[in-house]
C-alpha cells in the first residue's frame, strides 16, 4: 500500500515538474509585461513591481502610428481567411479521395503525402524567386495564396470523412436524384463540420506561426503579420533598449487570444491529433 | 466503397471539381517553385566584360551545387543541425513518451489539467517562443541567469551554450504536442490486453515498456518522421537570437544559409541550389525513417 502511495506521489511530482517547465515562461511573460524598462532589469523576474502595464500597452498602441494593430489585423486575415478557405479546399479534396475511385488515385494521394513531407521552408525561397518573376512580391497575395495549400489537411479530411460520412447516406441522396456536387454541399459538408473545424485549427496555427515566408516575401511594414512585426521590433533592441518592453507586451497580446481559442476548442484539436496518430 | 459512382460520368466531373482547387494551388505553390529553383540552380550570374553593363546569366550545370557543397559555411550548417537533432530528438520524444506513459499509468491525478498545461507552449508561435526564451537567457533580465548566478553557476546561454539553448526552446514548444499524440494512442489500446499482461504478473513499469510501447510504435514513428523534417528546417529560433547571441552566425543552419545567400549576397543560383539540396535531403531522410519504421 505504501509503495503504491510512493509511486503515485512520484508520478504526479514528475508531471508537476513538467507543467512548471511549460508554464513558467508564460507566467514570466505576464509579469514582465507589467513592468517598466528599468524595473525589468532591476526587479526579480517573478515579483510584481510598480504596475506599468497600462503605460506599456499605450506604448505598443502608439508605436509607428498603431502599426501593431495593423499587424494584428493582417495576421487575422492571413491565418483566419487562409484557413477558412484552405480548410474548405482540403475537405473537398479529402472527401473526393475517400468517397470516389478513379485511376491513379493512390498515386495522386502519394503526391499529397509527399507534400506533407517537403519542408515548407525549402519551398519558401524558390517560391520567392518565382513570385518575384511574376512581380507579386511584397503583396498581400504573396503570403495569402501559398498559405491556402495544406496537404496535411487533405490527409486528415480523407481519414475523418471515412468516419463521419456513411456511404449509405450518400446513396440515399443520390437515389433521391441529387447530383454529386449537390450531395457534397448539402449532405456531406454538414456532416464534416467537425472535421472542417479541426483542419481549420491546424491550418490557422500553421499560418499564424509562419515566419519564413512573410520574412522573404514582405518588405512593406504595413503588410507584416504579428510574428514578423515583433521580430522587426526585436532587431532594434540592441540599439534602442526601450523596444524590449514593446516586444514583451506585444508578445503577450499576440499569445493570449490563441491560448483562449485553444482552451475553448479543445475537443476539435484533440480529434485532429488522435486521427493523425492512429492511422 | 461507392462502386456505383466510379463509372458514372457525374462521378468523374465531381472528382475533378472537388480535387482541382487543391491540386491547381499545389502545382502553383509547391511544384512550380521547386521546378523553377531547379532551373535557376543551373545558372550563375556573372558580370560581363569589365564589370560594366551589369550581369548576365551563364549556364554552369551543377556548378552551383559543387560550390554550395564545397562551402565550409554550408557544411557547418549541416553539422550544427545534426548536432541539434542528436540532442533534441531523443530529449523531446523521450520526454514526451515518458510523460504520456506517466499520464496513462492510471495513478496520475488532474489529467486534463496536465494535458492542457503541457500543450500550451505549442500554441505560442515559434518566433514568439524564441523571443520569450531570448529574454529568459539574457543576463540582467533573466530570472534563470540570476538564480544560477546566486547558486554560483555562470552559464552563458547565448554564447558557448547557445546550441543547448536553442534545443531547449524547441523541446519546450513540442514536448506537450507529442505527448498528447502518444497519450491518445495509449488510450486506444484495448484494456483487455493490459489486463492480461497484469494477470501474468507484469508490474506497471514492465507493462509500460514491454506492452504499451510496442503497441504505439506507429504513432512514435510518425512523430519521429515529422521531428526529423522539422529539425532540418531549423530557422525561426536561431534567427531571433542571431542579433543578440555571439554564438550564432548568419549561416548557422542550412535554411539560414539559403536566406543569407538570397538576401545577403543576392546569389540566386546558389540560394536555389541550397534550397533544392534541402528538399532532396528531406525526401531522402523521410524515405529512410519510413522504411526503417516499417521494417522493425
From TrEMBL, chain A:
Transmembrane segments: 12-31, 76-97, 109-130, 136-157, 194-218, 243-265
Record keywords: Cell membrane, Membrane, Sugar transport, Transmembrane, Transmembrane helix, Transport
GO biological process, one term: transmembrane transport
Residues annotated as domain ABC transmembrane type-1: 72-264
Keyword hit for Membrane: yes
One Pfam family matching this protein: BPD_transp_1
Locations listed in the record: Cell membrane
Membrane disposition: Multi-pass membrane protein
CDD domains: TM_PBP2
GO CC terms: plasma membrane
Domain of life where this protein originates: Bacteria
Main location: membrane
Family classification: Belongs to the binding-protein-dependent transport system permease family.
Protein name: Multiple sugar transport system permease protein
From TrEMBL, chain B:
Domain ABC transmembrane type-1 residues, every copy: 76-289
Membrane spanning residue stretches: 12-39, 78-101, 113-136, 174-194, 215-235, 268-289
GO cellular component, one term: plasma membrane
Native source species: Streptosporangium subroseum
Protein family according to the UniProt entry: Belongs to the binding-protein-dependent transport system permease family.
Record-given protein name: Multiple sugar transport system permease protein
Topology in the lipid bilayer: Multi-pass membrane protein
Keyword Repressor carried by entry: no
PANTHER family tied to this protein: BLL4140 PROTEIN (PTHR43227), DIACETYLCHITOBIOSE UPTAKE SYSTEM PERMEASE PROTEIN DASB (PTHR43227:SF8)
CDD domains linked to this entry: TM_PBP2 (cd06261)
Top-level lineage group: Bacteria
Key words, A-Z: Cell membrane, Membrane, Sugar transport, Transmembrane, Transmembrane helix, Transport
Subcellular location: Cell membrane
Amino acid at each position: 500500500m505504501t509503495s503504491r502511495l510512493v509511486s503515485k506521489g512520484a508520478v504526479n511530482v514528475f508531471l508537476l515538474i513538467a507543467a512548471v517547465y511549460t508554464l513558467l515562461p508564460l507566467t514570466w511573460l505576464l509579469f514582465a509585461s507589467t513592468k517598466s524598462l528599468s524595473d525589468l532589469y532591476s526587479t526579480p523576474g517573478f515579483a510584481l513591481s510598480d504596475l506599468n502595464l497600462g503605460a506599456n500597452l499605450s506604448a505598443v498602441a502608439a508605436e509607428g502610428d498603431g502599426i501593431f494593430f495593423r499587424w494584428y489585423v493582417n495576421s487575422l486575415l492571413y491565418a483566419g481567411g487562409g484557413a477558412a478557405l484552405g480548410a474548405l479546399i482540403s475537405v473537398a479534396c479529402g472527401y473526393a479521395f475517400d468517397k470516389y475511385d478513379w485511376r491513379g488515385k493512390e498515386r495522386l494521394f502519394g503526391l499529397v503525402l509527399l507534400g506533407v513531407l517537403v519542408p515548407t521552408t525549402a519551398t519558401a525561397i524558390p517560391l520567392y524567386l518565382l513570385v518575384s518573376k511574376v512581380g507579386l512580391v511584397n503583396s498581400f497575395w504573396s503570403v495569402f495564396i501559398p498559405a491556402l495549400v495544406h496537404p496535411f489537411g487533405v490527409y486528415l479530411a480523407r481519414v475523418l470523412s471515412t468516419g463521419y460520412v456513411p456511404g449509405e447516406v450518400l446513396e440515399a441522396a443520390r437515389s433521391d436524384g441529387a447530383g454529386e456536387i449537390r450531395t457534397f454541399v448539402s449532405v456531406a459538408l454538414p456532416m464534416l463540420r467537425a472535421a472542417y473545424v479541426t483542419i481549420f485549427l491546424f491550418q490557422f496555427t500553421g499560418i499564424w506561426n509562419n515566419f519564413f515566408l512573410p520574412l522573404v516575401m514582405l518588405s512593406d511594414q504595413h503588410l507584416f503579420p504579428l510574428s514578423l512585426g515583433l521580430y522587426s521590433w526585436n532587431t532594434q533592441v540592441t540599439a534602442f533598449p526601450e523596444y524590449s518592453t514593446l516586444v514583451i507586451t506585444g508578445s503577450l497580446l499576440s499569445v493570449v487570444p490563441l491560448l483562449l481559442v485553444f482552451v475553448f476548442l479543445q475537443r476539435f484539436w484533440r480529434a485532429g491529433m488522435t486521427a493523425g496518430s492512429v492511422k | 466503397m461507392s462502386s456505383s459512382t466510379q463509372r458514372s460520368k457525374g462521378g468523374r466531373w465531381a472528382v475533378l471539381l472537388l480535387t482541382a482547387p487543391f491540386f491547381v494551388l499545389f502545382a502553383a505553390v509547391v511544384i512550380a517553385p521547386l521546378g523553377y529553383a531547379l532551373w535557376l540552380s543551373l545558372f550563375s550570374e556573372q558580370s560581363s566584360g569589365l564589370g560594366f553593363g551589369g550581369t548576365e546569366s551563364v549556364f554552369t550545370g551543377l556548378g552551383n551545387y559543387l560550390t554550395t557543397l564545397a562551402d565550409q559555411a554550408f557544411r557547418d550548417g549541416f553539422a550544427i543541425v545534426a548536432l541539434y537533432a542528436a540532442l533534441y530528438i531523443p530529449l523531446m520524444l523521450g520526454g514526451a513518451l515518458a510523460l504520456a506513459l506517466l499520464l496513462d499509468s492510471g495513478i496520475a491525478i488532474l489529467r486534463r489539467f496536465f494535458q492542457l498545461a503541457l500543450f500550451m507552449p505549442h500554441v505560442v508561435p515559434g518566433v514568439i517562443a524564441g523571443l520569450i526564451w531570448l529574454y529568459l537567457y539574457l543576463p540582467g533580465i533573466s530570472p534563470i541567469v540570476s538564480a544560477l548566478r546566486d547558486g554560483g553557476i555562470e552559464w552563458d546561454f547565448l554564447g558557448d551554450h547557445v546550441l543547448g539553448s536553442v534545443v531547449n526552446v524547441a523541446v519546450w514548444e513540442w514536448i506537450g504536442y507529442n505527448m498528447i499524440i502518444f497519450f491518445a494512442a495509449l488510450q486506444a489500446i484495448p484494456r483487455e490486453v493490459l489486463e492480461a499482461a497484469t494477470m501474468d504478473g507484469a508490474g506497471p513499469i514492465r507493462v509500460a515498456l514491454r506492452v504499451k510501447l510496442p503497441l504505439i510504435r506507429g504513432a512514435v514513428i510518425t512523430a519521429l518522421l515529422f521531428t526529423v523534417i522539422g529539425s532540418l528546417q531549423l530557422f525561426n529560433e536561431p534567427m531571433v537570437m542571431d542579433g543578440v547571441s555571439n554564438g550564432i552566425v548568419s549561416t548557422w543552419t542550412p535554411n539560414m544559409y539559403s536566406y543569407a545567400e538570397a538576401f545577403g549576397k543576392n546569389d540566386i543560383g546558389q540560394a536555389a541550389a541550397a534550397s533544392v539540396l534541402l528538399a532532396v535531403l528531406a525526401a531522402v531522410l523521410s524515405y529512410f525513417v519510413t522504411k526503417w519504421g516499417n521494417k522493425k
